[in-house]
Amino acid sequence: MEMSSERGVHRNQSKVDMSVMADVLNHIDVYDPRFCVAVIAIIFNPFFWNVVARWEHRTRGLTRLFGGPYLACYCLGTLIILLNVYRSHSMTVAMKAQARWEVMASPEVFYAGAALMAMGSVLVVTSFLALGFTGTFLGDYFGILMEEKVKGFPFNVTENPMYWGSTANYLGLAFMNASPVGLVLTAVVAISYQVAIIFEGPFTEDIYRQRAQCCKHK
């Protein structure tokens, strides 16, 4: 009897989960051009900066073009900032264009979103201050290496505070706007960042490993 009652509870929970998911999907139009633009912008950004940075590391093409690694890094960093501004704009447009979910339209959810945005902003700003412009925007790929790995806040909280802080900002924005499409777009952001980390982490470690080997041979 106990096992049959447990199965019944699990079935009921599954039905509730499916009904909630169906309700969320009813508020999302994946064929909306504004939603598609936002998804493309989210996926394109990390793909673009990883491809360009690896090309620079291999060829020093941008360094030659701009006459030095620092100016080249500043220019690429500025372009990345502009791309991220456009990504944020496209996500905001998509959220405003699609329906709100009344389940999320409560003061508690709104204030939770505000708290997420505050936390995310702290992670992003403190990460930038700890790394500096070149440390934040792929200076390693230009040969601008840091003397040692940053271990203080916020890197003692999470290894990639810039990425996860940005994700928290978007999740907070979705909460504050009671936007189910915002939740989906935030998930796309998180996945794209996770993929970027998989490629960036080992490559960056290899750059510093090569420097360490060169120092040993000197």
UniProtKB/TrEMBL annotation:
<dbReference type="Pfam" id="PF04191">
    <property type="entry name" value="PEMT"/>
</dbReference>
<feature type="topological domain" description="Lumenal">
    <location>
        <begin position="1"/>
        <end position="32"/>
    </location>
</feature>
<keyword id="KW-0443">Lipid metabolism</keyword>
<feature type="binding site">
    <location>
        <begin position="118"/>
        <end position="120"/>
    </location>
    <ligand>
        <name>S-adenosyl-L-methionine</name>
    </ligand>
</feature>
<feature type="intramembrane region" description="Helical">
    <location>
        <begin position="33"/>
        <end position="53"/>
    </location>
</feature>
<keyword id="KW-0472">Membrane</keyword>
<dbReference type="GO" id="GO:0031966">
    <property type="term" value="C:mitochondrial membrane"/>
</dbReference>
<keyword id="KW-0812">Transmembrane</keyword>
<dbReference type="GO" id="GO:0005789">
    <property type="term" value="C:endoplasmic reticulum membrane"/>
</dbReference>
<feature type="topological domain" description="Cytoplasmic">
    <location>
        <begin position="87"/>
        <end position="113"/>
    </location>
</feature>
<comment type="pathway">
    <text>Lipid metabolism.</text>
</comment>
<dbReference type="GO" id="GO:0006656">
    <property type="term" value="P:phosphatidylcholine biosynthetic process"/>
</dbReference>
<feature type="transmembrane region" description="Helical">
    <location>
        <begin position="109"/>
        <end position="133"/>
    </location>
</feature>
<feature type="topological domain" description="Lumenal">
    <location>
        <begin position="54"/>
        <end position="65"/>
    </location>
</feature>
<dbReference type="InterPro" id="IPR024960">
    <property type="entry name" value="PEMT/MFAP"/>
</dbReference>
<keyword id="KW-1133">Transmembrane helix</keyword>
<keyword id="KW-0594">Phospholipid biosynthesis</keyword>
<dbReference type="GO" id="GO:0000773">
    <property type="term" value="F:phosphatidyl-N-methylethanolamine N-methyltransferase activity"/>
</dbReference>
<keyword id="KW-0256">Endoplasmic reticulum</keyword>
<feature type="topological domain" description="Lumenal">
    <location>
        <begin position="135"/>
        <end position="177"/>
    </location>
</feature>
<feature type="binding site">
    <location>
        <begin position="200"/>
        <end position="201"/>
    </location>
    <ligand>
        <name>S-adenosyl-L-methionine</name>
    </ligand>
</feature>
<keyword id="KW-1208">Phospholipid metabolism</keyword>
<feature type="topological domain" description="Cytoplasmic">
    <location>
        <begin position="199"/>
        <end position="218"/>
    </location>
</feature>
<comment type="pathway">
    <text>Phospholipid metabolism; phosphatidylcholine biosynthesis.</text>
</comment>
<feature type="transmembrane region" description="Helical">
    <location>
        <begin position="170"/>
        <end position="199"/>
    </location>
</feature>
<comment type="function">
    <text>Catalyzes the three sequential steps of the methylation pathway for the biosynthesis of phosphatidylcholine, a critical and essential component for membrane structure.</text>
</comment>
<dbReference type="GO" id="GO:0004608">
    <property type="term" value="F:phosphatidylethanolamine N-methyltransferase activity"/>
</dbReference>
<keyword id="KW-0444">Lipid biosynthesis</keyword>
<dbReference type="InterPro" id="IPR007318">
    <property type="entry name" value="Phopholipid_MeTrfase"/>
</dbReference>
<comment type="similarity">
    <text>Belongs to the class VI-like SAM-binding methyltransferase superfamily. PEMT/PEM2 methyltransferase family.</text>
</comment>
<keyword id="KW-0808">Transferase</keyword>
<feature type="transmembrane region" description="Helical">
    <location>
        <begin position="67"/>
        <end position="86"/>
    </location>
</feature>
<keyword id="KW-0949">S-adenosyl-L-methionine</keyword>
<protein>
    <recommendedName>
        <fullName>Phosphatidylethanolamine N-methyltransferase</fullName>
        <ecNumber>2.1.1.17</ecNumber>
        <ecNumber>2.1.1.71</ecNumber>
    </recommendedName>
</protein>
<dbReference type="GO" id="GO:0032259">
    <property type="term" value="P:methylation"/>
</dbReference>
<keyword id="KW-0496">Mitochondrion</keyword>
<feature type="transmembrane region" description="Helical">
    <location>
        <begin position="35"/>
        <end position="55"/>
    </location>
</feature>
<keyword id="KW-0489">Methyltransferase</keyword>
